[in-house]
Amino acid sequence: MIKVQGLYHSYTHDHVYAVKNANFEIAPGEIFGFLGPSGAGKSTTQGVMTGLLPLQQGVVQVAGYDMRLRQRELFNKIGVSFEQSNVYSKLTALENLEFYGKLFDVPTLDPMQLLHLVGLDGVAKNKAGTFSKGMKHRLTFIRSMLNNPAIWFLDEPTTGLDPAISRKIIEIVKDKNAEGATVFLTTHNMQVADELCHRVAFIIDGEIKLIDSPRNLKLQFGEKIVVVDHRVDDTTKREQFSLVKPDDMARLQTLLQTGKIEMMHTKEATLEEIFIQVTGRGLL
Amino acid sequence: MQKLWTTFVKDARLSYQGIYFYMEVGMAIIFVLVMLFAVPENFDRTQTFYALVEIEALKGELSELIADGGDHQVKFFDSRPALEQALAANRSAAGIHVHLQGQRPVLELVLQGHESESMKALLRSTLEGAMASQLPGYVDRTTVVTLETAPARLSDRVNLLPIYLVINVAFMGLFIIAAYVFLDKEEGVIKAFAVAPVQVWHYLVSKIIIMALMAVVVSTIVVISLVGFRINYPLLILAILAFNVFGSVLGLLITSFFDSMTKAMGALFFSVFVLMFGGFSYFMPWFSPAWIRLLPSYPMIFSFRELLLEQGDVAYVLQNIGLFIALSILLFIYTNYRFKKTLTV
Ligand SMILES: Nc1ncnc2c1ncn2[C@@H]1O[C@H](COP(=O)(O)OP(=O)(O)O)[C@@H](O)[C@H]1O
Ligand SMILES: [Mg+2]
Fold first, then answer.
1. What value does the mean pLDDT take over residues B69-79?
2. Which residues of chain B make contact with A108, given a CB cutoff of 8 A?
3. What's the domain count of chain B?
4. Residue B192 and residue A82: Cβ atoms within 8 Å?
5. This prediction's pTM
6. Which domain range does residue B290 map to?
């Protein structure tokens, strides 16, 4: 569905690259996430993939269209939601959607239903300029769904939203994906990446460090740890044992045989911990 | 076409809610009001004369002659002190004293001191002509007339109209269309537009049409209020369209080199300033070197002038309309190319 090969992008047209040698492919029906801290090059990559930025070097194919050719019909098949909401503040929410919907050559969804989906139906007739940041973000988000896109690009879809709305957005993405949409999303939120993405790419300083499914990453990098609460002289003591270190294994075995164990569970590494482990840096 | 229409309707709705449309209308209203109520139809044309004529036979002749010259009035006095006193009371009147020196009538102009040289020359030749007609062997009134009427002339009020039209039609648009584009860039909506299946020219042409409509409506109303229906309106509208589109396309082209209004301001002002130089030749006909004639404002102003004249040169106007349409098309092709490259960068 999407193919990116040897993609480089420099805003200054020199050797200072915002994206360096990116290579990945996204299969139909996949949710593919770009996970990385702010300034890593996520939006730049999405910009080139959606034709907002010129393709300087490399190959980018989206839904079979070569992005170098800039064919406008492609935009009937894709939807793009932006990191910074961008709607006409002097038009109402409904007018914004109605106008945008008319630009497509394919059937579009009913604007009122979309507004209802994210709880904006009550303010459909209000000017977008009067909206809070979160409301504008939701409007930008549903606008990208108007043409029922086969490929959906979401730049930081949940950033800056309160938890309830974030949850709503995540559910909508899951639903659309279940209906068959391929999704490319960028985020610096590891929970979103973990919950939504079939595969994630770790990106930092413009370079993709690895690509895999969250599950594989956890299996591969997550040090398996057993947390044990046990009683020592009337107090509860909590200890962690690595399942890969022989020392820890021996001590755990002793404890199992002789100790008074109250509770015991395994803990898996979070995507963020793995990110730190792989890239040496956090997500913020 | 349907997408252009959709975009146009949206742009119309936005500009109707924006400030620029009202600015243009406000400017037009102020201009019309100033022209109608503060600017006389013709500067210096109505003159009150105070006369002391010591040759009885000349009195009637003088009144007649002065009345012939336009909307003038004459009032007679009996003595020099009375004349001077009246002149002191009305500083815009001019005095005439005719008396006999031996057998020759002598004309003396009693002026206030603020009259221009041309005014003095005009008065003197008019009056001398009048007296010459009373003396045998001096019948030569034609010289009097030639001084006053230029071959083709607009009233002083209408004379200012071409300047207003060029500013409003061609050069205000430069700023307004740039402001529209930068507003879209600022709101980011230009990015949303860029990921929709529309063409860049839809975006540009929609804005050009908005500007053209505003220019045609506002300018036509201004012209009607000031000159009535006597001129060739279809041709005027065609000229407004051609010149306005040129201004808009130029504005768009300049816009494509900058990413904010503040940064573009210098270039916009500079262009307008250079382009407006043609206006100098309009008020100072003796100053029209070739390089000024090449600036767009020169043919624009003079086309509007021809349009406003009773018997204007239609061919000249049409030729300029054609010229600007051709220029606009060429500029547009380049501008469209620039925008495709830079719309969202
Ligand atoms: N319009 C721009 N002009 C110049 N540099 C930019 C521009 N946009 C982003 N950058 C730079 O490119 C790098 C990647 O930015 P971006 O792709 O926005 O990162 P992310 O989306 O991962 O936060 C950053 O160093 C950023 O400063
Ligand atoms: Mg970003």
1. 77
2. none
3. 2
4. yes
5. 0.78
6. 2-39+155-341
